[in-house]
Amino acid sequence: MQVELEKITDYAQGINVYKDGEVTAYKVGETRFNEICAEWNSMLYGAHQMPAFGVSLHRETVKALKSGVWAEFTFDGEMSSNGMPYEKLLVNVQPEWSGFNVVRYTAKHGYDGRCFYYDLVNKDMSAFYNCLNG
Predict the structure, then answer these.
(1) How far apart are the two ends of the chain, measured CA to CA in Å?
(2) Measured distance CA(12)–CA(73) in Å, rounded
(3) From CA 89, how far away is CA 111, in angstroms rounded?
(4) How is residue 8 annotated by DSSP?
(5) Beta-carbon neighbour count of residue 127 at 10 Å?
(6) Percent of the chain beyond pLDDT 70?
(7) How confident is the model at residue 102 (pLDDT cuts 50, 70, 90)?
(8) How far is 23 from 42, CA to CA, in rounded Å?
(9) What are the backbone dihedrals phi and psi of residue 23, each rounded to the nearest 5 degrees, phi first?
(10) Over 80: is that where the pLDDT of 53 sits?
(11) Cα–Cα dist 77/13, whole Å
């Protein structure tokens, strides 16, 4: 299904929150899921999607998930944005960042491949980071 990347929360079925390697899963309809989606949408309001600076390497991404805070949106099937397929979308959440990569996951390639990139335009990720840690 082709989806505008800004609308992913309309299609997400779950959100995995990673904190230093420990994962907590929230399903669509749960209060916490709705809170995280609302904060994500607020953060992206007015942001600019741009070409990504690099690609994700599966092995490196899995290793990186063991530290810091990450949010992963999960979907029931394969989605596609800008011609790039995914089944999950993963974001490293750093409070001071004003731009970030969105890493795509597919069953076939894992976290290998091109990313999406967002410039938050005069904002940072601090409110989203606080939401995930709240």
Answers:
(1) 33
(2) 6
(3) 9
(4) G
(5) 14
(6) 100
(7) very high
(8) 23
(9) -110, 140
(10) no
(11) 10
- The answer to whether 90 and 102 are in contact (CB under 8 A) is yes
One-letter amino acid at 36 equals: I
Two tokens at 17?
């929150």
- Assign 3-class secondary structure to 51-97: EEEEEECHHHHHHHCCCCEEEEEEEEEEEEECCEEEEEEEEEECCCC
Q: How far is CA 114 from the centre of its chain?
A: 14
Band of pLDDT at residue 32, cut at 50, 70 and 90? very high
Residue from 2, 6, 30, 4 nearest 17 by CA: 30
* Token representation of residue 51: 């070409």
Q: How far is CA 48 from the centre of its chain?
A: 15
